[in-house]
């Protein structure tokens, strides 16, 4: 797709999403061509961008992202992965406040998703998700539209969803924010698993401190928190600037 064939708002969104695909790959969270990240088209709230199923994350660019409709069913000629369409279309449809959904299958995420006990407040990374995590039981490959209603119920108004025995999902108003949330969630999972392996008595952050810290995170994210995004883009540009094209 040529840059001059679409609006500046959509092109900006395409670049932002392409950058997040590359960052996920850079951090080692990709899985060949699998898993998905979606971003709502700014001027078309019923449409979203997602990668073509057969592309590696390292091959994603602004111009080769695919635009699909949230409404109805998937056009099977679009080249988009059906489970990705079902999951992401459902999340974006039920949460008008969400513009980006990011889903990965990392070892630490899957391991924590299979733990019966909820995520524990054992690190500052975990505290970001205090009272803001949902849990969705495993139902097999997410290819039926009927599962959307259950995903919607289990996600609720949370910012993250553990998909039991499957992986993790974060949602946000921007691709940058969804990326930061998945980074912090996976770090929280990794730290908890490491701590549990010690077999030692663990110290959890008290509820009142968690509540205050969540408010601090919100203020930070609305303020200076965004300063990291240009830094990430500089890293990508040094590695391979083709994501912008």
From TrEMBL:
Q: What is one cellular component GO term in this UniProt entry? A: cytoskeleton
The record's annotation in Gene3D superfamilies points to:
Class II aldolase/adducin N-terminal domain
User: Which NCBIfam families does the record cross-reference, listed alphabetically?
Assistant: PRK07044.1
> What PANTHER family is this protein classified in?
ADDUCIN (PTHR10672), PROTEIN HU-LI TAI SHAO (PTHR10672:SF3)
Domain Class II aldolase/adducin N-terminal stretches: 15-193
What is the protein name stated in its UniProt record? Aldolase
Report the sequence similarity comment from the record.
Belongs to the aldolase class II family.
Query: What GO molecular function annotation could you give as one example from this UniProt entry?
Result: actin filament binding
Q: Where is the signal peptide, in residue numbers? A: none
